[in-house]
Amino acid sequence: VRAAMFPETLEEGIEIPSTQLDPAQPTAVQRLSEPSQMLKHAVVNLINYQDDADLAT
Predict the structure, then answer these.
(1) pLDDT of res. 46
(2) Where do the H-state alpha helices sit in 1-57?
(3) What is the predicted pLDDT for the residue at 55?
(4) 14: three-class secondary structure by DSSP
(5) Helix or strand or coil: residue 39?
(6) What is the membrane topology here (predicted)?
(7) Would the CA dihedral through 40, 46, 47, 48 be positive or negative?
(8) pTM for this structure?
(9) Which long-range contacts (CB under 8 A, 24 or more apart) does 46-54 make?
């Protein structure tokens, strides 16, 4: 747990093992982050749209 939360405490050359057993299946954290990523992209698109609309007027 310490290595995952504080990777800077690892000795050089030691890798953190992956918790993803099947690369084809996303982890629970990846699945939970998808809606927030979609929201982030939607907000960025709205900001860009507003900037474009301001430039057009």
Answers:
(1) 92
(2) 2-5, 28-56
(3) 81
(4) coil
(5) helix
(6) Peripheral membrane protein
(7) positive
(8) 0.46
(9) none
Calpha distance 41→49 (Å, rounded): 12
d(CA 8, CA 14): 11
pLDDT along the chain (57 residues), means of 10: 66 69 81 89 90 80
| Alpha-carbon gap, residue 28 to 18, rounded angstroms | 13
Structure tokens at 16: 């953190």
CA separation (Å) from 24 to 21, 27, 36, 38, 51? Answer: 9, 10, 21, 21, 38
